[in-house]
Design a protein that fits this description.
By secondary structure, the chain is α+β, with helices and mostly antiparallel strands. It has three domains: 89 residues, Helix Hairpins (Orthogonal Bundle); 50 residues, SH3 type barrels, CATH 2.30.30.60; 81 residues, Alpha-Beta Plaits, CATH 3.30.70.100. It is built from seven helices and ten strands. A five-stranded antiparallel beta sheet has the order 4-3-2-1-5. It has a three-stranded antiparallel beta sheet with strand order 6-8-7, covered by helices on one side. A two-stranded antiparallel ribbon has the order 9-10. Strand 9 and strand 10 form a beta hairpin. Helix 1 packs antiparallel against helix 2, helix 3 crosses helix 4 and helix 6 packs across helix 7. GO terms for molecular function: mechanosensitive monoatomic ion channel activity. It is found in: Cell inner membrane; Cell membrane. It comes from Microbulbifer agarilyticus. This is Small-conductance mechanosensitive channel. Keywords: Cell inner membrane, Cell membrane, Ion channel, Ion transport, Membrane, Transmembrane, Transmembrane helix, Transport.
Length: 286
């Protein structure tokens, strides 16, 4: 018993030191957690000070992880770990992980390229490949978007950067193109007058650039008239749908018709080749 008591007395300072280190480490972890929360909130408020919303999520992620790394190094230092050797070990481990996670690192690199070049920002509508949507967040690994049918998608940054990007929101003006088909027997100038009247009655169409009118094509069954007009980007679809709705009744009001496709048939029979009589395009029933 005396020997056991003597050993416990010798180990008492060790237990005290270890216990103190554990308490300091727990305190350091709590402080790190609180600091990470405060840093996250502070960075999130940068958008209120004029910082681009595109950069805020990435800056927030980097700041939080940097806080955790510093806190972890403090905890290791409390227990007397050789942080210099640890940093070298982490570097070697990071290299191995980097080789194993090559695709993930490509997404991170593409994320920084997207943030640097800014081909799009949060709130803009873009298309890459067959994917189209409104950008909601650009992270270190993925870009989050809302599709026109209300779905939330998350695309790897390297896939976004690796495709040809179309930004539908960046320019303030966008061109509308309307094709009106009339029959060959109809008067072209009357059709042009209908298109000009539609433009005159639509106040959202811009005067500069000036609207353009042309005969686009002499098609198989119709003469295609072409209208090009410019509108504000945010009003594009509203104006386009309004013009398309008004086009058919406006043509009919001037006695113009939208013809059905026609075909000329060559019938081969016992008496040779018979050519069916060619008829003019039939007008759509009213």
């Amino acid at each position: 018993m005396e020997s056991l008591q003597a050993q416990l007395q010798e180990l008492a300072p060790v237990f005290t030191a270890v216990g103190a280190n554990i308490l300091w480490a727990l305190l350091a972890l709590v402080v790190t957690w609180i600091a990470a929360k405060l840093v996250s909130r502070a960075v999130a408020r940068l958008s209120e000070r004029g910082i681009d919303e595109t950069l805020v999520p990435v800056l927030e992620t980097l700041a939080v992880w940097a806080t955790y790394v510093v806190g972890g190094l403090v905890v290791l230092d409390i227990f007397g770990a050789n942080t210099t050797s640890l940093v070298a070990l982490l570097g070697a481990t990071g290299l191995a992980i980097g080789l194993a996670l090559k695709d993930t690192l490509q997404s991170i690199a593409a994320g920084f390229v997207l943030l640097g070049l800014r081909p799009f920002r949060v709130g803009e509508t873009i298309q890459f490949g067959s994917t189209i949507g409104t950008v909601r967040k650009i992270g270190l690994f993925t870009t989050e978007m809302d599709t026109p049918d209300g779905l939330r998608i998350s695309a790897p940054n390297d896939k976004v950067w690796g495709e040809t990007l179309t930004n539908f929101s960046r320019n303030p003006k966008r061109r509308i193109e309307i094709v009106a088909s009339i029959a060959y027997r109809d008067d072209i100038e009357t059709g042009m007058r209908v298109l000009r009247q539609l433009v005159a009655e639509e106040p959202r169409i811009l005067a500069d650039p000036e609207p353009a009118y042309a005969v686009r094509e002499l098609a198989d069954s119709a003469v295609n008239l072409h209208l090009r007009a410019w509108v504000k980007t945010e009003e594009y679809w509203d104006v386009y749908w309004a013009l398309m709705k008004q086009l058919k009744p406006a043509l009919e009001a001037e006695g113009l018709s939208i013809p059905f496709p026609q075909r000329e048939l060559h019938v081969v029979g016992g008496d040779g080749v018979k050519i069916a009589p060619k008829t003019a395009p039939k007008a759509a029933p009213k």
